[in-house]
Amino acid sequence: MTSNTYTTTSVLPTKSQIKASASLVLSGLDQTRDARVALYKEFHQHPEPAFQEVWTSQRIYDELRASHIEVTRIGKTGLVARIQNGDGACVAMRADIDGLPVKEASQKPYASTYTVQDSTTGASVPTMHACGHDFHIMSLLSALKALSVHKDAWKGTYLGIFQPAEEVGQGALSMICEGLCTQFTKPDVYLGQHVMPTLPGGCVATKVGAFFSAAYSIRITLHGKGSHGSMPELGTDPIVLAASVIMRLQTIVSREMPSDERVVLTIGSVSAGNKANIIPDDAVLLLNTRTYNAELEKRLFAAIERIVRAECDAAGCTIAPDIEYFDRGPLTSNDKDTTERVQEAFTSYFAKQSLQGEPQSVSEDFSYIPDEWGCPYTFWTLGGFVDMNNAPANHSPHFAPDLQPTLDRGFEAAVVAALAWLAR
């Protein structure tokens, strides 16, 4: 393996240099389109859930090796591609590669019919790329190939990080644990993008500061006292207690959080009992929170815990509730200088299709890796639907972004952003 040391330059390319270099690197856009569409459809038709992306990882590996691009495996399914092209800055870009256990209903002719076997039950589980990670794979893979072909247009080092398991919030951490940040020297900047239904098709958007929210899932177990349905007075009904907790939790955002701050609290699951005439012992609530501010997150959690415990006391519970936090998604807060540089490059190249972004209430594990490296980052969104007013949300069984201009624009955005540091 070649050296992991990069020679960084403090002289950054101008807008005209970025645009000229991008035009050269992207000169094969039309000629490669059919091949890129065909490869995209392969990825779309083979979605694999978190940490099971074996076929996906191998397909990416084979494409990179066929293009004579150095590639290193990180863990079971993570990959790092690297192109070293003389002295200069080092730019890293991430693409997440996992799918979701969702049955596709998009009616696309290339819709996924792929299934995986559940390790517990043995049942076949339908899967799809319901969050657009197939577009992310293609954007980064296409950028790597184009930069490899047109080394005369740029200088420095480009890292392509293909990350597993974003959907469970563990993929970035797994790559860190497998030695990514010690095996490769810290890059100058870390880049990422996500296809979304929340801006016009073919547009790109980012913003300085908090962009994707911090998220947590919370499991609350309420311990009542079981009884016969005909003798409720002999028990403590956890279902009634759960109803009281649910209604009271709804007041946190409306009455305890500042009105000018975005805070989301969702109760996504309630489970208790299995028979009409049995009062169960327990009820379990699953909550999800989204915040853009660490202090507000602490206040939100304190309010949740206060309300749950108070309602349990009011119901006469003899066992305290269990409150478990899991599936954390860190805040994605874009670095000012990095973001402004990418925005300037986008506006110069894409003109009116470069937009000012708005905070998104979705969450990502993207920032774990640059935070571990200690390098600045920016993350942008890519419009996936020309008819955005009728676009399905991410994770919907109908989520299948328009092939074009999404496929081309994701590729172009990856290249233009990188050349903001690497252009000759």
Automatic annotation (TrEMBL):
Residues given in the record as Mn(2+) binding sites: 131, 133, 167, 194, 395
Cofactor requirements of the protein: Mn(2+)
Ranges of residues in domain Peptidase M20 dimerisation: 217-312
Cofactor comment text: The Mn(2+) ion enhances activity.
InterPro entries assigned: Amidohydrolase (IPR017439), Bact_exopeptidase_dim_dom (IPR036264), Peptidase_M20 (IPR002933), Peptidase_M20_dimer (IPR011650)
Keywords assigned by UniProt, alphabetized: Hydrolase, Manganese, Metal-binding
UniProt cross-references to Pfam families, sorted A to Z: M20_dimer (PF07687), Peptidase_M20 (PF01546)
Single GO molecular function: metal ion binding
This protein's name: Amidohydrolase
Lineage: Bacteria, Bacillati, Actinomycetota, Coriobacteriia, Coriobacteriales
